[in-house]
Amino acid sequence: MIRRTFLAALAATSLVLASGAWAASPDNTLILETSKGKVTIELRPDLAPKHVAQIKTLVGQHFYDGIIFHRVIEGFMAQTGDPTGTGMGGSKLPDIPAEFSKAHFGRGTVGMARAQDPNSANSQFFIMFADGSFLDGQYTVWGEVTDGMDIVDKINRGEPPANPDKIVKARLASDPN
């Protein structure tokens, strides 16, 4: 009985890992309700477990609710996560050590913003509009937009935008509220 249960669990785990179904888990699906519409992001704890844990903690604290996209550069990326809206702020949580990987910064990739120190990421993140291979191995990839890139494309441009868009509400798909 125990052996059969173990083998069934092992088979299920292998299927999950082989199919990448970890990303489809509601616990690893972030929903950003923005002023332009809904964006769904699959979290990548396999690439950046500490960054994903920090994002989940901040989402659980409603930290991102109401925060603007303060740096939006055409053909590059849309950045958010700063409660001051200046690009200089962060959360009260400690900074996160870098979790660089071989993941490519392509369109829809979500990465963690940081200062010059690679271990200075905290709450700010960005979503790529286009290829950003020059960021590969230099910034932490922690997610991928799976639905709503058309919404991201509509975010008002500027540093900061004259009329900034915002995250109305951020939540995990596993959170019914």
Characterization of the model:
This protein has 177 residues and is an alpha+beta fold. It has a single domain (20-172), classed as Beta Barrel (Cyclophilin). The chain has helices spanning 2-19, 49-60, 149-152; strands at 29-34, 37-43, 69-73, 77-80, 109-112, 125-128, 141-147, 167-172. A hairpin with a 3-residue loop joins strand 3 (69-73) and strand 4. It is globular, with a radius of gyration of 17 Å.
In short:
The chain is α+β, with helices and mostly antiparallel strands and 177 residues long.
Search tags:
177 residues, alpha+beta, 8-stranded antiparallel β-sheet, 3 helices, 24% strand, globular
Q: What is the count of β-strands? A: 8
Which shape, going by the Cα principal axes?
Answer: globular
Task: Report the top-level CATH class.
Answer: Mainly Beta
Helical content class: 10-25%
Could you say what the CATH architecture is? Answer: Beta Barrel
Intertermini distance: 39 Å
Topology:
Blueprint lengths: L1 H18 L9 E6 L2 E7 L5 H12 L8 E5 L3 E4 L28 E4 L12 E4 L12 E7 L1 H4 L14 E6 L5
